Amino acid sequence: MPSIAGHLLVECLIAQGVTHAFGVPGESYLAVLDGFHAHAERIRFITNRQEGGAAFMAEAQGKLTGRPGVCFVTRGPGATNASIGLHTAFQDSTPMVLFVGDVASDARDREAFQEVDYASFFGPSTKGMAKRVERIDDARRIPEYVARAFATAMNGRPGPVVLVLPEDMLTQTVYAQPLPRVEPVQAWSDPGALRELRTLLLASERPLVIAGGGGWTPQSAAALQRFAENWQLPVANAFRFQDTFDNHHALYAGDVGLGINPALAARVRESDLLIAIGPRLGEATTGGYTLIEAPVPKQKLVHIHASAEELGRVYQPTLAINATMNAAARSLEVLTAPPTVPWSDWSQACNADYLANIDPSNGGITLPGTIDMPAIVHSLQKHLPADAVLTNGAGNFASWLHRFFRYHGLVKGHKTQLAPTNGAMGYGVPAGIGAAILTGRTAFTIAGDGDFLMNGQELATAVQHRAKSIVLLLNNGSFGTIRMHQERDYPANVSGSALSNPDFCALARAYGYAAERITHTAEFEPALQRALAAPGGSVIEVMIDVDVITTRGTLTAIRARAQSPG
After folding, report:
1. CA 237, CA 243: separation in Å to the nearest integer?
2. Per-residue DSSP letters for 192-237?
């Protein structure tokens, strides 16, 4: 039977298992919106308030499900607004498909209303924002393009794909059927490489695993844990992939990223064998390419990655293995280990370093003001369900969660951390709301005052779609990370980082969230319990001194270091 092309597109999404699509409606894809209406019992279109928030929700969808998150935006301004979510998906290796309604074919290349050259703007490349950018000019080929987009987004290094939809193409009558659901291809480890890895392990004295990146599942995380246990290997998680390995495990060594535990940084440098499983070893995970020196590391490096293009791109590894995470972890867990290993004390010491770092009584600086952030994170650990999804954007505030919260990890069956490795502000609020819509699990977001106002409007989306999230909003009247850098580099010239804020509680209530403001640590735990028990979303605003700026000191200490003659 014939169908409208816009309806066929929605049917193709349903065939790929998509249950939710996020977006801001636009006149350029009205036929698709009509398709969502026609198939409302099988797929929901979630109406967002800004395209950046929609793209972040789709990116969170990709992280949570392992399949492409789906976002729809209109041409020009809509597409450029959504680019922040696309860049996040690219750097985080998250599968995602962005559909962009476009100008009609007969107006193309005339700088028509809101026209953009998307191939140039999103530019597929190793440094771009998308793995592939394609325009569908023939409505009969919609199933082909959609299936290829899903395959491209999931295979190799996961990432985003852009499909451009001319307005007139979507209204055509077409005879076509959706193609079957696409499944990602599994690339298995070369048996010879596994034998070489075993030889390297047997010759090692101080090995260390760094796990992270995209493509992990509960099954692969469980296999990674068994590999670590078989060989008694310490495991660290890459930047903002802290749920890859259970933080409560006796072999956990901490997270390798911004604000790294100095003891763990020393362990990375002292290691004689680094086994990187999944991460692309970007700037944040390598300490600005200093923990692991480029292009030839001082340590022996085994790099396992789903994309052959990532292997040898920055670092020349001792051994490169091209394998997807599911296949790699399952290969590693059956790698025969000796009865004993010489690095047992090393592994125990790595875990002891981690436990010491999350103990606030160990060499901590007394924080100014009446808010004790480690104690607040302890309350989160005490009261949040084990399967809660924790989200954050970018800012100094996130370091409290990264340092002190202990993720149970994918091995428990759920992804529990959503955070942008590209440092995108404004991610946490929409990601938490998207997680609540998709999973129904408890969604908890930590945000700063500057970070919250980047996408705080998505609270309206949560209320409209009956989703509940809890937002912990740290209000210090400052862009904290920038203020920290200024105090270090230009201590006498703080500029542009001070904020004059609205009444956040009144703003949250206007959207339909419950809200309360606390000024003392003891007020937080009962406020959290009320938020967990409430039927709808809640904002807990914490008034925090601007000097409470980093987990490793205060602005006072930073100023003193900056002014020291040494």
Report:
1. 8
2. HHHHHHHHHHHT-SSEEEEE-SS---HHHHHHHHHHHHHHT--EEE
Two tokens, residue 511 = 């959207």
Q: What is the Cβ-side half-sphere exposure of residue 112, based on CA atoms within 13 angstroms?
A: 14
The CA-to-CA distance between both ends of the chain, in Å, stands at 78
Q: What is the pLDDT along the chain (566 residues), one digit of tens a residue?
A: 899 999 999 999 999 999 999 999 999 999 999 999 999 999 999 999 999 999 999 999 999 999 999 999 999 999 999 999 999 999 999 999 999 999 999 888 888 888 899 998 998 766 779 999 999 999 999 999 999 999 999 999 999 999 999 999 999 999 999 999 999 999 999 999 999 999 999 999 999 999 999 999 999 999 999 999 999 999 999 999 999 999 999 999 999 999 899 999 999 999 999 999 999 999 999 999 999 999 999 999 999 999 999 999 999 999 999 999 999 999 999 999 999 999 999 999 999 999 999 998 875 567 788 999 999 999 999 999 999 999 999 998 999 999 999 998 887 788 999 999 999 999 999 999 999 999 999 999 999 999 999 999 999 999 999 999 999 999 998 887 888 888 888 877 888 888 889 999 999 999 999 999 999 999 999 999 999 999 999 999 999 988 887 656 676 666 666 666 65
CA distance 353 to 335: 28
Which tokens belong to 73?
A: 């935006």
Q: Are 146 and 12 in contact (CB under 8 A)?
A: yes
Q: How far is CA 75 from the centre of its chain?
A: 26
Cα distances (angstroms) measured from residue 107 to each of 20, 120, 163, 166: 31, 18, 18, 10
Nearby residues of 266 by Cβ (< 8 Å), 6 or more positions away: none
- As a whole number of angstroms, the distance between CA 223 and CA 188 comes to 14
Residue-range domains of the chain with CATH:
3-174 (3.40.50.970), 191-357 (3.40.50.1220), 373-563 (3.40.50.970)
User: Rounded distance, CA 163 to CA 81, Å?
Assistant: 16
Taking the alpha carbons of 530, 533, 538, 544 in that order, is the dihedral positive or negative?
positive
Whole-angstrom Cα distance, residue 383 to residue 380?
5
Half-sphere exposure of 167 (CA within 13 A, CB side): 18
Asked if 22 and 46 touch (Cβ cutoff 8 Å), the reply is: yes
Q: DSSP characters for 147-159?
A: HHHHHHHHSSS--
Task: Give the three-class secondary structure for 34.
Answer: helix
How far, in whole angstroms, is CA 444 from its chain's centroid? 14
Q: What are the φ and ψ backbone dihedral angles of 218, each rounded to 5 degrees?
A: -55, -35
Pairing of strands 470-475, 538-543: parallel
* Sequence letter at residue 467: A
- DSSP codes of every residue in 270-304: H-SEEEEES----TTTTTTTTTTTSSS-SSEEEEE
Task: Enumerate the H helices of 490-553 as residue ranges.
Answer: 504-511, 524-533
Q: Could you check whether the bond before residue 68 is cis, i.e. omega within 30 degrees of 0?
A: no
DSSP 467: -
User: Phi, psi at residue 190, to the nearest 5°?
Assistant: -70, 130
